[in-house]
Amino acid sequence: MLVRVTSTPTATFDDITSSNSSLRRFLHGLPGVDQVGAEARAASLGTRSIKTSAKEYAIDLAIRMVDLTTLEGADTAGKVRALANKAIRPDPADSSCPSAAAVCVYPDMVGVAKETLGDSGVKVAAVATAFPSGRAARDIKLADTHDAVEAGADEIDMVIDRGAFLSGRYLDVHDEIRAVKQACTRPDGTSAHLKVIFETGELATYDNVRRASWLAMMAGGHFIKTSTGKVQPAATLPVTMIMLEAVRDFREATGQMVGVKPAGGIRSAKDAIKYLVTVNEVAGPDWLDPDWFRFGASSLLNDLLMQRTKMTTGRYSGPDYFTLD
User: How many beta carbons lie within 10 A of that of residue 20, not counting itself?
Assistant: First the structure.
């Protein structure tokens, strides 16, 4: 049986976050995660099969949910332009193939991505706050965020200070998320959406994943994200399931929806479908939308395209048929 947390209205969050001790009491008062039960349920959801028509829909939906990403020191403007063009038209030979959700880059490449994407509808996401370590002074993190937003980023992917979280300085983490969210606001009053990255591979326990999820949502994050992709383990189905439970329970408590983004290690269409089934079964169909669920997995896109081609043509294209990113 899943435990639902529904007893915390939004009006009380200011009281809860008024001190580190009150925030700690709330987070450590959340129901503990049954590790064996969580892993068994995730494994069970991963065995669900879907019919052909549903599989076609799921593959197209997964493509629409992909954040194509390049986060390497050797990134060039040419590489970012190529990635952005692929996000717009993932399969140049098939105009019916949907676009990806976003292109995710370092802040200095936002302008290049924005110019290339134009009015395609594909978003520009930028990592910020000293990604991937999160080890920098707060003013540097805020400047990093501000620069990305000023360059045109539609979304900001920030990393939490895991050292602060693991040492129990929850209020510091909460206040930093709020400060970064404020830095996402433009002079005209609009703002970039904020994805809060936990680096779940460093959080060690499922209880910590649940606590980090509530902490980020209470601080105003628009999305909660598993990983940077730079630390292993990255996204796993049990961790994502716990985060989906959290966003479901948060909406029941507050009426507010928050998105979820597993990132790192999701490479096959088969795996993507497992995640979509889990989204539907745990959080509900409202989250089966790129506005509320994303995949941070660039290598996933080619396998989705290969499976899509096989379903539409009956022929299986090899991995070299599509560009490598």
Answer: 16
**Is 219 a domain residue?**
yes
Count of structural domains within the chain: 1
Share of the chain above pLDDT 90, in %: 83
Q: How far apart are CA 257 and CA 268, in angstroms?
A: 28
Inter-residue contact 267 to 235 (CB < 8 Å): no
Evaluate whether residue 88 is within a structural domain: yes
Catalytic residues: 157, 225, 261
The domain of 104 spans 30-313
- From the list 205, 251, 244, 206, the residue with the least C-alpha distance to 225 is 244
Q: What is the pTM of this model?
A: 0.93
Beta strand residue intervals within the chain, DSSP E: 67-69, 102-105, 123-128, 155-159, 193-197, 223-225, 259-261
Number of CB atoms found within 10 A of residue 49's CB:
8
Question: Which three-class secondary structure string do you get for 24-35?
Answer: HHHHHHCCCCCH
